[in-house]
UniProtKB/TrEMBL annotation:
Pfam families: FA_desaturase
Region feature (Disordered): 33-59
Residue span, Fatty acid desaturase domain: 148-380
Name this polypeptide is given: Fatty acid desaturase
Organism encoding this protein: Geosmithia morbida
UniProt key word Transmembrane helix: yes
Keywords: Membrane, Transmembrane, Transmembrane helix
Length: 440
């Protein structure tokens, strides 16, 4: 019987290793079921089935390979240089490889907080040499003044950058930087230039995500919690997005006041309100450039953040909603992991917010049995945005096919998978949340 696992040609090397590891579990589980059904459970294992001790060895070997890819002292070490290609599969002209790529990688490794993250320096240089001069020209311009073609192309370019930039900054806000500590001043300053170009208001991502979302963990106190909504209902989804879109400037300061953190509330008000005031002033000076450079990215990013968070926390267990394993998911897909720094390993991130993005695959395989015991959800061939879209369509059959079953889930039929997923999108009542979280 086929495993149902699909290998996209653009998966990262790490994701291929993870999927193959899970696929082996699926084949082994089904082989054991076949032996049990035939009454031959004591028969020797064939190639299709592997003894438990051998599977443990396979897991350890996979974890070690993943760690070696991240270890600068290992011969297998492979830094990430570009989001679109793995270094080992980049068939570059030998001259360019020897005299351009390799020297760049060697130099870049010494400028970064973590040596695997050459890609972040690559992206930072990309933004500084494209986004910044393009935005400056739209505002300051030459004799021809503002040009709508340039303006809209600039906005399209920024939209294409948004995902990777946001997840680069996700690493930045958790680790308090991405560059070597001797370059801390650059780390501290560049977001004030690049954040607004990508739709981010100054420092709001840090305060909302690190100081609020990870503290509350999608629970009742989380302003971005999905629990109080029916997660396959478009009206509930629009209310969810609308609340963040129009009221986060007020909700987040009030949250910190309620938590008796007035200094954080004051900082949020200063940066969020100051940013909005800056946009207003810029609009009065140059409305067309402000629209293309700042407003379009700003409004699209805020919608995108909520669409993504909905997908990340759409499936919440009714019995144990406060479990990170049961209130978030893992995706093994190209958009999330190749282009957005392993954002698909969302459960791993909630379990340890300080875990480096390259360490998620190894951490997942190492803790795979724990994930399975908690009935955690793993998907592939789908990203968070499309999970949200499929939920709005109530298309649980597609979501069931995109599942990568682990543990007891392997024995479920597609219909049973779909019903299980449907049960995890149910809205929690206020009474249920009080009971589950011991609220008074």
């Amino acid at each position: 019987m086929a495993s149902g696992v699909v290998y996209d040609a653009n998966l990262t090397r790490s994701d291929v290793l993870v999927l193959k590891n899970i696929e082996a579990d699926i084949y082994n589980h089904r082989h054991e079921e076949t032996l049990d059904a035939s009454g031959d459970g004591d028969a020797p294992k064939s190639r299709a089935g592997t003894a438990p001790a051998d599977r443990d060895d396979d897991d350890e070997a996979t974890v070690q390979t993943l760690r070696d890819l991240n270890n600068p002292k290992s011969e297998q070490f492979e830094p990430t240089v570009f989001t679109s290609w793995d270094l080992s599969t980049l068939n570059l002209n030998p001259f360019l490889d020897q005299w351009l790529l390799r020297p760049y990688v060697r130099a870049a490794r010494g400028l970064l907080r973590v040596e695997t993250d050459v890609v972040m320096l690559t992206h930072l240089m990309l933004y500084l040499t494209t986004s910044v001069p393009s935005a400056a020209y739209l505002f300051l311009g030459g004799g021809g003044g503002f040009n709508w073609v340039h303006g809209l192309l600039h906005a399209a370019m920024q939209i294409s950058y948004m995902g990777s930039y946001t997840l680069m900054m996700h690493q930045h806000i958790h680790m308090r930087g991405i560059l070597h500590r001797r370059l801390a001043w650059i780390d501290a300053l560049f977001p004030y230039l690049t954040d607004p170009l990508m739709g981010h208001s100054w420092n709001s991502y840090f305060y909302h995500h690190v100081k609020h979302h990870h503290v509350e963990g999608n629970g009742p106190g989380d302003l971005s919690s999905t629990m109080r909504y029916q997660r396959d209902d478009i009206c509930h989804f629009l209310r969810y997005v609308g609340r963040f879109y129009f009221l986060v400037w007020l909700d987040l300061p009030l949250y910190f006041f309620r938590k008796r953190k007035p200094l954080l509330a004051a900082k949020v008000m200063f940066w969020e309100w100051g940013f909005c005031a800056s946009l207003y002033l810029l609009y009065t000076v140059n409305p067309r450039a402000t629209t293309c450079v700042f407003l379009i990215p700003f409004f699209l990013l805020r919608a995108g953040l909520m669409v993504g968070n909905w997908g990340q926390h759409a499936f919440v267990d009714n019995v144990e909603p406060d479990s990170d394993y049961r209130s978030s998911i893992t995706l093994i897909d190209v958009p999330s992991n190749r282009h957005c720094f392993n954002d698909g390993y969302h459960t791993s991130h909630h379990l340890n917010p300080m875990r480096h993005w390259r360490d998620h695959p190894a951490a997942f395989v190492k803790a795979k049995k724990l994930y399975a015991s908690h009935d955690a959800l793993v998907f592939h061939e789908i990203d968070y945005i499309m999970i949200t879209v499929r939920l709005m369509m109530k298309d649980y059959d597609t979501l069931a096919r995109r599942m990568v079953p682990i543990g007891d889930q392997i024995g479920l039929s597609m219909k049973e998978r779909a019903e299980m997923l449907r049960s995890r999108t149910r809205q929690f009542t206020a009474e249920e949340m009080r009971e589950k979280y011991n609220l008074t």
